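Annotated sample (chain length 529).
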Amino acid sequence: MWHVVWFKRDLRVEDHAPLAAAAAAGPALPLYVVEPELWAQPDASGRHWAFVRESLHDLRAGLARVGLPLVVRSGDVVAVFERLRRRHGIASIHAHQETGNDWTFRRDRRVLAWAREQGIAVTEHPAFGVVRRMRSRARWTAQWEQVMRAPIASLRIAPQPALPFDVGAIPDAPTAALPADDGPGRQRGGRAEALALLDSFLGERGRHYTREMSSPLSAASACSRLSPHLAYGTLGLRELVQRVRRERARVGDLASLDAFAQVECSDALPAQDPRRSTNPWKRSLASFESRLHWHCHFIQKLESEPEIEFQNVHRGFDGLREHDFDASRFDAWRRGETGWPFVDACQRMLAATGWINFRMRAMLVAVASYQLWLHWREPALFLARQFTDYEPGIHFPQVQMQSGVTGINIPRIYNPIKQSRDQDPHGRFIRRWLPQLRGVPDGFIHTPWLMDRKQQQAAGCRIGGGYPAPIVDHAQAAREARSRYLDWRRQPGMRELAESVLRKHGSRKRRLATRSAAAAPQPDLFAGS
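Output written by the structure step:
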C-alpha cells in the first residue's frame, strides 16, 4: 500500500508538506499525471508545457537524491489512481491545494469523490497563504503571516521498497493537439534555475528594484524573474519570504519586519514601501516583499469566487463590452500590429520571451479594454497562453481590475504614447522589437504615422505598408471609452454592488478608504515582478 504524493503546480522537493507527510506515513510514491484534457484548455500553451517538462526532469533528479522515484503517467487522473489502487494499493493521497482554473477545480472534486467511494484518505495541504473555505477577510493577513513564519517542512525518508513498476517517461508533449509554442527567450524551468535567479536577485540584480522595475529597458534584469517558478512551485513562497526577510535583516531593516507584517494587503496599497530610506536595498526588499503579500491576496479572490475566471467580479458591468467585440481589433492587438509602437513592441517581446514587466502587462490590458473596447475574456486567455508565469489566481482578478469591471478600482486608461515617451524615451526598446522602425528618428519613434511621405522614405518605413497606421485615434478612443464607462457606472445599484464586492474581496484595513477607490493608487501586479 502506497502513500501517494500527487504533484501538480508544486514541482519541488524542498518545503513540500505533502511529500513530507507521505514519507512519514510509510512507503511514499511521488506521482505526476500528464492530463491531456488539462492541456486542451484555452488557457494552456506549449510554452507552459516546456517549462513544466524541464521542471519535471529537475524534480525527478531531486527526488532521486533523497531515494525516491518520480512516477509519471498520462491520462485521466481518476483512471490513473484507479489502476494504481487495483494493482498496487493506495493507503492515502497527499497533495497541495490548488487554486487553478475551473477545469482543475472540477477535476479535484472528481478525485475527492472517487477517493471517498474507495475509502482512501486525501489530505490537501495549503500551498501558500491562500485560505480555503474562508468565511471572512478579517483575519486573512494574520493567517498569511502565520503560514509564512512556520518552519520549513522537513523531509525524513524511511527505507523504501523497490518500485514494482516502471517510473514512466516524461513526454515531449502532453498531447499531440497542443501547438508547439516556445519563444527563444523563454525562461527555463527547474529548481536549479529558480535558485540561481534568487541568488542573483538578492546578490545584485535587485538593488534598484523599485527604480528600475517599471521600465522595459531595465525590468528584465531588475525584477526577480521568479514568477514562473512560483507559478509552478519549483520555489515555495514560504521559503522565498523567509529568505527575503533574512536579507532584510542583513541590510539593517530588522526593526521594520514585525510592523511590516501587520500591513494589510490591499488593491489600494502604494506601489512601494512608503518609508523613505537612503539604502536602496531596504526600499527594494521591502517593495519586493509587499508583492509576495499581494501574490496571495489576489489568488485568494479566485479561491473565494471561482466564477471570476468567466464572469465580471462586479455583475453590474455585465453587458458593458461583451456585445461590441471587434475581432479585427483583437487580432491586431494580439499580433502587435496596432500601429502604436510601444504597445506592439510589448507584444513582440512577450511572444519571444514569455515575459514582460507588470506595468506593461497592465497597459496591454488597458489598451485592449478602453482604446479598443474589447471585453476582457479573450485578451485574458491570449495573455494566459503567452505568459510563461501564468498564475490563474493572479491573472483573472488582475485582468478584470485593469479592465475596470471590479467596481472597486478606478478606470486606469493608459495613454500608449505617454507610456512610450516615459518608459522608452529614445526608442531603444521599440527598435529592438520592431526592426522595421529602426531607421525612424527619435522625434517620430513614438508616433511614426506623423511622418510625411518624404520622412518615411528617409526612415525606410512606409506607414500602412511596412508598419501599420494606428487602428484608431488613441486619444479620441480613450475619451469615448471614459465617457461610456462612467455613464455605465452611474446606473442605479452600481454602488451597492461595488460595496458587496469590497466586503468579499477587499482589504479589511482599507475598506473605508477603498469605498471611493477613485483616489487610491493601484498596484500593477500580475505575476511578472
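Annotation: The radius of gyration is 24 Å.
Annotation: The first strand starts at residue 2 and ends at 7.
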